[in-house]
Amino acid sequence: MQELLDNRILMASFSAWFVAQLLKFLGTLLLCGRIDLTRLVGAGGMPSAHSALVTALAVATGRTTGFSSPLFAVAVVLAGIVMYDATGVRQAVGNQAEVLNRIVDDLYHDGSIREERLRELLGHTQVEVLVGCVLGIAFALVLT
Asked: For 81, left (φ over 0), alpha (ψ -120 to 50), or beta?
């Protein structure tokens, strides 16, 4: 167990993820005035915790193993895929969920269907991903 705690790459990555999730929770608390515990683990929102995690992973790996190492290359490719997915695929799915929820609302109010909501907050805007990246870089620089 101590070996895991001594792994600076893992600590930087998971610390960045945790702080990003905590910022989402605090943002909801301060801006909306409500406690929403799902923001501690849920997807979507500001900043992107996935982006913070994979960016911290890539930068910490580069700082630890060298920026010309194969491990750094794998981490950068993984980070690119995750961030593309966050702004592309998951953002589109969230948009589709919003439209489907409006359709369900209309049909539910007509009495022809039961109401079942889809999650709309799945993806990220480019700004949310960028802020997550900056957070990840900061944690990697501080912890490795």
From this structure: alpha
pLDDT, one tens digit per residue, over 32-85 is: 888 988 888 877 788 999 999 999 999 999 999 999 999 999 999 999 999 988
Gap between the Cα atoms of 64 and 69, Å rounded: 10
Q: Can you give the residue range of the structural domain that contains 77?
A: 2-88+123-143
Give the Cα-Cα-Cα angle 57, 21, 133 (nearest 5 degrees).
40
**Cβ contact 53:136 at 8 Å:** yes
Give the count of domains, the chain.
1
Are the CB atoms for 79 and 57 separated by under 8 Å? yes
* Largest distance between two CA atoms of the chain: 62
